[in-house]
Design a protein that fits this description.
Blueprint: E1 9-12, H1 18-29, E2 33-36, H2 41-51, E3 54-55, H3 64-70, E4 77-80, H4 97-125, E5 128-133, H5 146-166, E6 171-176, H6 184-188, H7 190-196, H8 204-217, E7 221-222, H9 227-237, H10 239-256
Parallel strand pairs: 1-2, 1-4, 2-3, 4-5, 5-6, 6-7
């Protein structure tokens, strides 16, 4: 058991399935009181009933006040997990303004809005925990999915900002950056995901395990795929070489389409 989350009031967005459901189950198993959020009210209630949690369905950007009330007035841990992924949207290819707008709203601004609501109380009492489900795409990139790659960089940057700005005031921040995870979102990445992510895809429960190990070790960056650290280092050390390698993968993908 991780003492830091026992009896904590926890909110998990996008928890009707996939990584979110795995996180909700793990927090509940560790003794936390869990609010399960999802746009799909039925899925949220199913997971909440399973774990003895509280379903608060709706837009992840606007449920902090309701979740706080459901938890008796205090949110101790907020998991900004809800996300969307779309193929395309790149320069010279299909440009879907709606997909870009929704990606920014869900993958970045939902995190910003939640932090805006949560920070005053957290800073006043000197404690709080913000968990951001980002993606290895936020550290690296993803072929064939410009809105996803770009907004996940934004989500990672915002998590970094929160950590560097408020860690001396008691805020704990964790950025989870997996590669492929066997969820509906992986399926939404299409043929690019089949090429790049499926071969090393892990289960949502593996992501939850990695997060709880990171919480116990008080680490910001959570890498369920440890090899991502090597890719990240290679990218920083020689960007042109790294981009050339990624372009080869892009060409492989184009050859299969």
């Amino acid at each position: 058991m991780v003492e830091a989350v026992q009896d904590a009031g926890v909110v998990v967005t996008g928890a009707g399935g996939g990584i979110g459901a795995a996180l909700a189950r793990r927090f509940a198993a560790e003794g936390a009181r869990v609010v399960v959020n999802d746009l799909d009210a039925g899925r949220a209630r199913t997971v909440a009933d399973e774990i003895g949690g509280i379903a608060v369905p709706g837009d992840a950007s606007a449920i902090v006040a309701e979740a706080r009330e459901a938890l008796g007035g205090t949110v101790d841990v907020y998991c900004a997990n809800a996300g969307v992924a779309f193929e395309g949207g790149h320069a010279g290819g299909p440009l879907d303004e709606a997909s870009w707008s929704l990606s920014w709203d869900v993958n970045v601004m939902a995190h910003v809005r939640a932090a805006h609501e949560l920070l005053p109380a957290w800073l006043e009492r000197g404690s709080g925990r913000f968990v951001s489900t980002v993606s290895a795409a936020g550290l690296l990139t993803m072929i064939g999915a410009a809105p996803y790659a770009v907004t996940k960089h934004g989500a990672y940057a915002f998590a970094e900002y929160l950590s560097l700005t408020y860690r001396h005031r008691g805020l704990k921040v964790h950025a989870i950056c997996p590669q492929g995870v066997r969820t509906d979102m992986l399926a939404a990445t299409g043929s690019a995901g089949d090429l790049v992510l499926q071969p090393t895809a892990i289960e949502p429960e593996d992501v939850a395990d990695a997060l709880f190990k990171g919480i116990a070790e008080d680490r910001f960056l959570i890498l369920p795929h440890p090899e991502v650290a090597e890719y990240y280092q290679a990218r920083a050390a020689d960007p042109d070489r790294w981009l050339t390698g990624m372009n080869r993968i892009q060409q492989q993908w184009e050859a299969t389409r």
